[in-house]
Amino acid sequence: AKPRIAVLGSMNMDLVVQCPDLPRPGETITASSFTEISGGKGANQAVAAARLGGDVSMIGRVGDDAFGRQLLGNLNREGIDTSLVRATDRCPSGIAIVAVEQCGENSIIVVPGANGRLDKQDVSLAAERIRASDALLLQLETPINTALAAINIAREAGVRVILDPAPAPTFFPPELFAVDVLCPNQSEASAILGWNIQSVCDAKDAAAELNRRGITCAIITLGDRGTVASENERPLWFEPVAIKPIDTTAAGDAFAAAFTIHWVKHELSMEAVRYACAAGAFAASRAGAQPAMPRREDVLDLLESEKE
Ligand code: RIB
Question: Does any ligand 1 atom lie closer than 6 A to the CB of residue 247?
């Protein structure tokens, strides 16, 4: 059976410009291209989970506008159930202004639009779907109280919860430490703990601290320095998967979705981390958000090429 995954989160149209370097304050630069690409952390994770073999339901909001219809159409084409995505009257769809540098690094400004309207009523409407899922996957680009309401439903029903705490909130409510898996990147982990995480060693200490605060499986992604994952305060380092970086947008989304699918299917969390590292690396080796989400064969090929 396919793992049943409920994804609650954002849907954005990414307005992507390719530029040689990111502009400094006050500077005007010329970009080489502009593209509209379906994105949003929630929708990216939904696409990755579906491509990697999940039976996926998306819970979210779009505006009643052309971007909203495009975003929904894209998820439908991926075979994702969008019956729990509401179109919001008199509100634009979320957009993200994404600047991608030649080296693949990016900077993103998000205008949440309809994502900011995702509320507890949406969660009530989705309650049965959440209860019937094998896992609930969330990020923090939609209101935090909405995420908390969904997490409570999942926990009461014994559904595992994976939280990608991106973007990191200014205040991380203690209730969020009740999720099963937390997968911040280095800067999000620093913000959550109030620590300055610089090295792999710092990340190992931070992951163990997240275990002490209640997270069963804490995973900190470190970009080209690999990933640290910890259970029972025993942190492990996973070396980076070698790729040529093209665009790091949504690499974290591919990671979170791949971890979720593999963990639900095989129960082995540390093997799921290795699989997720390859999925994230694949996404960073392709341009754009949803177009760069991997399929199972892509991840397996990359893991196989690592052995050679
Ligand atoms: O994680 C990448 C995503 O962040 C982009 O697709 C953009 O929409 C922002 O939400």
Answer: no
User: If you measure from the C-alpha of residue 89 to the centroid of ligand 1, how many angstroms do you get, rounded to a whole number?
Assistant: 23
Q: Hey, how many other C-beta atoms are within 10 angstroms of the C-beta on 204?
A: 20
- Which amino acid residue places its CA nearest to atom 1 of ligand 1? 250
Atom number of ligand 1 nearest to Cα 252: 1
Task: Give, for 256, the enclosing helix (H) or strand (E).
Answer: helix 251-266
Q: Decide: 266 and 134 in contact? Cβ < 8 Å.
A: no
Closest to 181 (Cα-Cα) out of 200, 203, 160, 156: 160
Residues in the chain with pLDDT values less than 50? none
pTM: 0.97
Ligand 1 atom at minimum distance from 14 CA: 8
How many other C-beta atoms are found inside a 10 Å radius of the C-beta of residue 19?
A: 16
Cβ count within 10 A of residue 79 = 12
Q: What's residue 104's pLDDT?
A: 83
Contacts of 113 (CB under 8 A, 6+ apart): 63, 91, 92, 93, 94, 95
Active-site annotation, residues: 253
Helix (H, G, I), strand (E, B) or coil at 304: helix
Q: How far is the CA of 307 from the centre of ligand 1 (A)?
A: 31
- Residue 141, phi-psi category: left (phi > 0), alpha (psi -120 to 50), beta (remainder): alpha
